[in-house]
Amino acid sequence: MNLGSVVRLWEDDLLIKELERKGVLSESLLERFALKYGKLFWRAIKAVEEKRILKYVFEPSGKYLWIVIGKTRKYLVIPDFYCSCDDFYFNVVTRRKRQLCYHILARRIAEILGLYETIRVSDTLYKDLLNEIKLYKIRKDKFTVS
Ligand SMILES: [Zn+2]
């Protein structure tokens, strides 16, 4: 994977910059986002609207994890860098068709607009949450014939 390109994901993204500056998703911004990201954008907006972007803050360490709830399960999103969903794996990492999945876009928009839920939990749950995401992947790899 070309990490450099992912890290610089938003560097030249004028829409994200404008959204950061304005702090609201105006009609014209909405149209331009839709033009640029198409289906990904509408899925991202739906996730934001449905409050499916969660920031788990672990205490007392202060560590945090971003989780986006998909249709059937939770995905771990490392801001602007990684998502545990299949779309990210196949279309971003393997086929390099795109730079992001809708979860990454949704998290970014939710963070800028402050439209995410913060869930404070004990540090002891940190590994459980990661395992919940990892276990699903292992099970799936084992039973998926591709
Ligand atoms: Zn994803």
What does this structure look like?
This protein has about 150 residues and is α+β, with helices and mostly antiparallel strands. The chain has one domain (about 5-145). Helix content is about 50%, strand content about 20%. The chain is built from seven helices and five strands; from the N terminus they run ααααββββααβα. The protein has helices spanning about 5, 15-20, 25-35, 40-50, 85-95, 100-115, 125-145, and strands spanning about 55-60, 65-70, 75-80, 80-85, 115-120. The protein has a five-stranded mixed beta sheet with strand order 4-3-2-1-5. The longest helix is centred in the last third of the chain and has 18 residues, at about 125-145. The protein is globular, with a radius of gyration of 16 Å. It starts with a helix and ends with a helix. The model has no long low-confidence stretch (mean pLDDT about 85). Bound molecules: zinc ion (ZN). Zinc ion binds next to α5. Zinc ion (ZN) binds near residues 87, 88 and 103.
The shape, in one word, is globular
Number of strands: 5
Please bin the fraction of helical residues. 40-55%
Average pLDDT level:
87
Bound molecules: zinc ion
Question: Order of helices and strands, N to C?
Answer: HHHHEEEEHHEH
Question: Structural class of the secondary structure composition?
Answer: alpha+beta
Approximately how much beta-strand content do the residues carry?
Answer: 15-25%
Task: Give the N-to-C terminal Cα separation.
Answer: 21 Å
Q: Quick one: biggest sheet? A: 5 strands, mixed
Number of helices: 7
| Rg for CA atoms | 16 Å
Low-confidence stretches: none
Major beta sheet, strand line-up: 4-3-2-1-5
Number of domains: 1
